[in-house]
Amino acid sequence: EPVAETSAPKPGFLGRLVGRSAEPRRALDDEMLESLEELLIASDMGVDIALRVTANMAEGRHGKMMSASDIKRLLAAEITRVMEPVARPLPIYPKKPQVVLVVGVNGSGKTTTIGKLASQFKAAGKSVVIAAGDTFRAAAVEQLQVWGQRAGVPVLTAPEGSDPAALAYDAMGRAEAEGADLLMIDTAGRLQNRADLMEELAKIVRVIRKKDPDAPHNTILVLDATTGQNALSQVETFQKLADVSGLVMTKLDGTAKGGVLVALADRFGLPIHAIGVGEQIDDLQPFDPEEFANALVG
Ligand code: GDP
Q1: In Å, what is the CA distance from 61 to each residue of 70, 71, 214?
Q2: Is the C-beta atom of 111 inside 6 A of ligand 1?
Q3: Which of 104, 127, 178, 202 has the largest count of CB atoms under 10 Å?
Q4: What ligand 1 atom has the least distance to the C-alpha of 137?
């Protein structure tokens, strides 16, 4: 059972606007709707989707007297509706090893997420191999080794500065030889030189396909929720660099900008496989749209 307990929802923004009463106290008028839109936009939801969510929620209810809890419930239901199609756990294929390429900018939480995922799969009885493919960052390799130890999973490394594709190829061989269920490959996140990074990722894909033409079976983009709207441009960038198949959103524990997930879902429709809610090994949860929506509206 890899699912950690839910962290207590932070006091949400709607509470401040409409109070906490279940008693009807305000009309759902234009002024109220505008305030709701502003609050949603302030959560980094993005203007388009904030306006749409508010309009849908108000449809057929203009001028009605509403309690605070009515408004929250209706708004949360609209947000849940947007998020439900993207809440999809990492798909498990029968293929061995299933290759998961993990991409994202440095600091987004790639290393941590790989450690957490490895631990979950291990707990679910799967054998896992990790390849420390960011060979240019010694600190990242060390950090991944620490996570590997915590999760009880081998971490393959290569000398600093060596070709990540060669490591990925070796890791495929090792995972195959061991009959591992899963191979997770960390990658560099230097966006300063996109052409290099693109070539590096393409080469990794090319060599692992020599061993399995269907690999990588997943390419997960790790995004830091505290970067707010910036996450949108990161998706665009990485979609050009790699064939992104799904997202993991980290650091949702420390942000009021979680609304960006709604903007991401609306704009890209990529599956959200999991969310990071802390720095510990158990702090990775499946994405639950309803829980997320309730926490967002508070
Ligand atoms: P990488 O450079 O992409 O590999 O990022 P790291 O995995 O090293 O993470 C960068 C920092 O973010 C570290 O200090 C992590 O502990 C922290 N971090 C990662 N995921 C989360 C999360 O879900 N919540 C919080 N609060 N911190 C996180």
Answers
A1: 11, 11, 50
A2: yes
A3: 104
A4: 2
